[in-house]
Amino acid sequence: MASKTSDIPLPSRAEPDALDWRRPFHSMRFNSLLLLVFLLALWEFGVRFFEVPKFLLPPVSDVLTAMYRGLNTSPFAKDGFWFHTYFTLAEILIGFMLGSAIGLALGVLISEIDFVEILLRPYVAALQSLPKVAVAPIIVMWLGFGMSSKVAIVCLITFFPVLVTSIAGFKAIDTDRIDLLRSLSATRWQIFTKAKFPSALPYIFAGLDMAAAFAVVGAVVGEFVGAQAGLGVMILQMDAQMDTGGSFAVFIILSLIGIALTALLRAVRRRVLSWMPADPSQRTVSA
Amino acid sequence: MTAAPDPSASSDAYIRIRNLSKTFGAPGQGGVLALRDIDCSIAKGSFVSVVGPSGCGKSTLLRIVAGLLDYSEGSVVLDGQPIQGTRRDVGVVFQSSILLPWRTILENVMLPAEVLGLDLRAARERAMQLIHMVKLDGFENKLPRQLSGGMQQRASIARALLHDPKILLMDEPFGALDAMTREQMNLELQRIWRESGKTVMLITHSIPEAIFLGDVVFVMTPRPGALERVIRVDLPRPRRMEVMASPAFAGAANEIRSLFNHTGSFD
To answer: Which residue, A226, A212, A12, A200, is CA-closest to A104?
Structure first.
């Protein structure tokens, strides 16, 4: 709210990322990059020097070659990365959107209608404590090896964080804001759209952030359990062929998907919550 | 500064409160009696201050008149109609400004127009006039957090006036401000009230503020809040800060303080 200490602009941290070529070590981004190069070199030479078997830990160069081979393929080649990435990405995006939409809708119903809350609370609590990946095999059994079972798993796994954070967001609303709208004879719908929903948005975005991270996990686990295509399937195939370099290359792609999803969400959040002071909006509840 | 008898007898009563009581929770067992037998009336266009010790139920009284809270016994009649929930012709200024942080100042001031479905173009014009009246010109497009506490509270006064309510209810609106800003705001509120001709009910815990602004000061007892005395303030308008040094002002202040002392509730 208005006059609290959080509104006082914090002195911005000394900008450590500005790279000054005369003093490169003052840039933490440069230092991070340097550390990466160092670790990769240590890995490459360590593996070669100690003659670690390639199926246990491939040298970096093998990972890079596998990456190049995987990407240098037609989008429809079943042994290429593009084909499988497309499947996994589609499962993640569809599942994420469905799951978070249902989670948000149910969050609204539970926090707006007492009857629904009393009815569903125990089920939500019970299901919440269940590790969602445990039901992945059953879902694959029900829905088959196609994409739908993976979408369902991603949906289930993204549903809960959004549900829980949106309920928390609607509960945390400053009752003064509701009183203000009530004093203007606002309808229930107006109170919701003009006060409750915007107030809950920071919470909802925290839930979406968590859901995005879980979505990738859900898709890969689903594909491990049973699928015809997808990066999880690729990992299983490569492991069977002891192509560890290939597996590592897939790990990198999965990480990039996660990073891209999070970055996209951050961009949307920055836009939607542009009114928030920059600092607290950077704080995220991460999985 | 006469300790007037209950002025509810006057025929021009705009807000009339009769034998009003409020109990929170179940009456009798475990219920808390917050207001007891309040009987008063407020004339149209007048400025009424309500003072009382902390927790005496002043805010409860205001919330009942605003229609935000129901009451247990008695009656509240506003412009000839018994109160049943909130009304469109009432504007409320709360203890904190309650500006919505994602809306600009102009958008915040426009809120009542959106909620009440007024003509937005006309409302926008009026909003700009009100923003000018509360001296926030140039801040229309700023976010609330970019304004000081006093400016935020001024914006909330502009918002409360947007739909041109006949009655302005103010619940300790300046409590969070420093003494200097507060005096400034008192002067401005007097000016706004004189310019707009509203009926104002101001809840405050500041005795000087109550006297400075009020035509009438309602003094309340500690909980359960009852109306201890109604004090008329016959100082000429517009009042300036110097009036606080006058004997008449001091007399009224002392009268209120002695009432608080008498009831053992000086706060």
So the answer is: A200
